[in-house]
Amino acid sequence: MTRYAGRTAVVVGEATAIGLAIAKRLVEGGARVVLTAPSAEERRALGSELGSSARVVAASELTARLGPGDGVDLLFADTAATARPLLAHLRDGGAVVLTAAGQPSAAVRALAGELVSRGVRVNAVAPGCIEVPGGAPVPPLPPLGRLGAAEEVARAALFLATEATFTTGVRLPVDGGLGSP
Q1: Long-range contacts, stretch 54-58, CB < 8 angstroms, 24+ apart
Q2: What pLDDT is attached to residue 101?
Q3: Cα separations in angstroms, 30 against 2, 8, 24, 173
Q4: Average pLDDT of each block of 10 consecutive residues along the chain (181 residues)?
Q5: DSSP string, the chain
Q6: d(CA 20, CA 43)
Q7: For residue 65, what pLDDT is reported?
Q8: How far apart are CA 43 and CA 97, in angstroms?
Q9: Are 9 and 31 in contact, with CB atoms under 8 Å apart?
Q10: CATH entry, 8-171, from 3.40.190.10, 1.10.565.10, 3.40.50.720, 3.30.70.60
């Protein structure tokens, strides 16, 4: 599959389950991916898992690893503050997707307003009740009657980044109906 061929994506968020699911789908689709991970051991393991189309680096090394010629098409970050240092590398017409549940809609709209003149779309996914590897305590189930999966959040984030081309400043709940009236 070459759905994302020719695109460069950066996934910042210390290799959370959601970040890793996004990175895997991007690599499978032909994108070049840079993912952050905290420890050298985790970086090696994830690098092997993702293959040669991905670079896994420490968050502190990220801006140094992205030179002036390394244009980023898609940026996935946990908050606007995490995304901000990377905006200089983002190509005009690119997309930013924030992936933190607590990211307020006002922050998403503010960053979208800042980048609209460059044709950059900024949106957010707001995951809730997502299954966590390692058997974390189960919260009360949402109306859909089950926990969500990181893969489901990844699909929503990728939709906002690549398919929702006339959408910006939006916060999309991926919460199994918890936010529904």
Answers
A1: 54/23, 54/27, 56/15
A2: 75
A3: 5, 9, 10, 27
A4: 91 85 97 94 95 93 76 95 94 94 88 97 93 71 91 97 97 88 54
A5: --TTTT-EEEE-STT-HHHHHHHHHHHHTT-EEEEE-SSHHHHHHHHHHH-TTEEEE-GGGHHHHS-TT--EEEEEESSHHHHGGGGGGEEEEEEEEE--TT--HHHHHHHHHHHGGGT-EEEEEEE-SB--TTTPPPPPPPTTSS-B-HHHHHHHHHIIIII-TT--S-EEEESTTTT--
A6: 12
A7: 78
A8: 23
A9: yes
A10: 3.40.50.720
pTM recorded for the entire structure: 0.93
Map tokens 């950059």 to a residue: 120
| Residue written as token pair 């759905």 | 3
Q: Which residue has the tokens 């980023």?
A: 72
* Domain boundaries of the chain, sorted by first residue: 8-171
